[in-house]
């Protein structure tokens, strides 16, 4: 999940203007159709746009963005245009993001396998920048320590990791709309910095359910981020239910925005409230993942 976790795909920055006037499909902030799609045109941001500029959809220089009309609709189930990030971008990124996106999900906690879980460096900086820029909704997610580590350091308990994470949120008076718990397997054998969910299917299921109990006990609004195609690498079957009582942020890398376009389910979920549809891309000059959020 973390944007910038791998090498980001970058649009060509060839500084030519060959893509000006290209027609593209993107999504307006008001989501005016059932699919969430709206047609726009690639234009320089120095020109007047009759609707709104949206970053991340046009090839070429970063000041060539999609000018798409604002809609009077509000397509049912499509959601709001959002991003999630794990890097610490520049001030100019946030100015651009505030005019292009309605939701940002910030990585606030990482596996930190040398410590058994750790606060993400830059979390408080990103929150302050997003708030100052005026992004309407700020979410936060944790990518916790959940496996046996090559370092020999044991993961902190779910309660301890949550207390550490939420302690920083509260100490900095953060107003977080939604919290997300990231469930995905990682392996040092595959080049990842830490191992996650490598305990075996039965132990993984037991631990995941312990986490869900701990999440609910915080009294905050939690959801689960997960990829259905990774489920059986962690649990006994695709139908293994570890927490479908919490809302789902579904991962489906088809580059189609709109929560109502999610077709991949698992773990007892039959619907989603968010969708990550494009991984490791670039918007507003920074590395992001693109999302839709209800």
| CATH class type of the largest domain | Alpha Beta
Number of helices: 4
What characterizes the major β-sheet? 8 strands, mixed, barrel
The averaged pLDDT comes out at 85
The helicity comes to 10-25%
- The assigned CATH architecture of the largest domain is Alpha-Beta Barrel
Oligomeric state, counting identical vs distinct chains: single chain
Question: Do you know the CATH topology of the largest domain?
Answer: TIM Barrel
Low-confidence stretches: 2-19, 25-38, 70-76
Radius of gyration: 19 Å
Q: Could you tell me the strand content as a percent range?
A: 15-25%
Major sheet: arrangement of strands: 5-6-8-9-10-11-12-13
Total number of distinct structural domains: 2
Structural class: alpha/beta
CATH superfamily of the largest domain: Glycosidases
- Number-wise, the strands total 13
Task: Give the ordered list of helices and strands.
Answer: EEEEEHEEHEHEHEEEE
Shape: globular
Q: Tell me the span between the first and last alpha carbons.
A: 19 Å
Organism: Glarea lozoyensis (strain ATCC 74030 / MF5533)
InterPro entries: GH (IPR017853), GH25_Enzymes (IPR051595), Glyco_hydro_25 (IPR002053)
Family: Belongs to the glycosyl hydrolase 25 family.
GO molecular function: lysozyme activity
